[in-house]
# Entry
Amino acid sequence: MNWVSITGLIFVLLSTGILVSLSLWKRKKPPTFRDIPAYTLLDKEIGLAIEDGSRVHSSLGRSSLLEHGSAASFAALGLLRRISELTSVSDQPPIATSGDAALAVLTQDVFQSAYQTSGAGEQYHPSTGRVTGLTPFSYAAGSLPAMRDENVSVNILLGSFGVEAGLLTDTAERENSFILAAADGLPAQAILYASLQDPLIGEELYAAGAYVQAGQPHTASLQVQDILRWVFVVLIMGGAVLRLIGLL
Amino acid sequence: MRKPLATAIAIAIGSIVLLGYFLPGTLLFKIRLELVHWAVILTGVAVLVGVFNLFSVHVEKIRNRQKGSVYSLFLIASLLFSFLFGLAFGPDHVTIRLLFEAVVIPVEASLMAILAVTLIYACIRLLRKRLDLMAVIFLATAFLVLLGTAPFPFGEIPILGSLIRPMIVNVPAVAGARGIILGVALGTLTTGLRILLGTDRPYGSN
# Structure
């Protein structure tokens, strides 16, 4: 066991400790986070979709659950669960597309359990969680008809995407539907920055749960991210100063 | 009973895999490798489930005579043909390879080409929708890097190709990318921990 493994393990255990403490802390006032316009608009747009009887479409990317992008897919599943609960009263159930088979199985599971929790188990239909293709562009091409032909007014593209995200945002834009999009990869983020009114960059993807009030663990996890970010800032700045004065 | 049990199994296996990663050479490491192998097999089975899902969605589309059901019919015919042919002759057969090289790859390349046009259009729209300092810097940087990289017949543009482009690519772009990647890594860590602790359960438990 080398020092890198030991440091990594200590870092993970420390993060777990902070996350558990913050999750269990019964605070008088909920923590406030900076305003992210895309998430503020999402609440409003979902409400409008329920009112006008249109659908919410979530695209969860194409990362396999065994790849590094799986965390982005899991964050997207958290948001999907919350959206399913919110839209369980709607005439039109939300749909979810993905480019990985195991991820599609999980989206069906999330839909089913969210409807059961909301007391609307009969709303669930397996075809609402679907695989649209197993390669990057076939996934995008397969998702386009769902965005265009199924009365969708809100598109949420959250997960692990590549450059094919550009085709999805372009279609959503042409259909005049609302788009909330975030990806974990740099090429997709550059494309989303150029295509969207309110792009989400970097770790904002993982803040989705906290911003849609998915529960205390999501809020606590966002706070852990903020704490760790400051730790990193101090370490990087400290390292730079030590190097500058020749001590490192 | 089923749901707490599923959660307990997920937490236990997640913890073993995580600890096995940090403790190489131990029993946990060997168990981790075995569990990851099982996960690979399950993912392979999930692909079959995914193909069946794709099939059933398009069959439903044809049955309900929804918009674009002709394309669904074409998709199902192609899917059945390549699946049965691949099953009978194996993935290395010349016809299956031809299917990939003459159909799948050119179609994906065409979509990539469409994407290039889409992005140029998106950049023009960006200036109309969001004319702020960051948008101008974004577009100006993209333009300078493109000019510095483009293969002109007279060679690279002096100063731009030899000094400005490498400076942009190696200093601010790398710094920004590292910042974003650090943020993504922190998000990945906290999301993983939420799942490991069972507070976020994307496997059906209420």
Summary: Helices of chain B lie at 2-22, 27-63, 69-89, 94-129, 133-149, 160-170, 172-196.
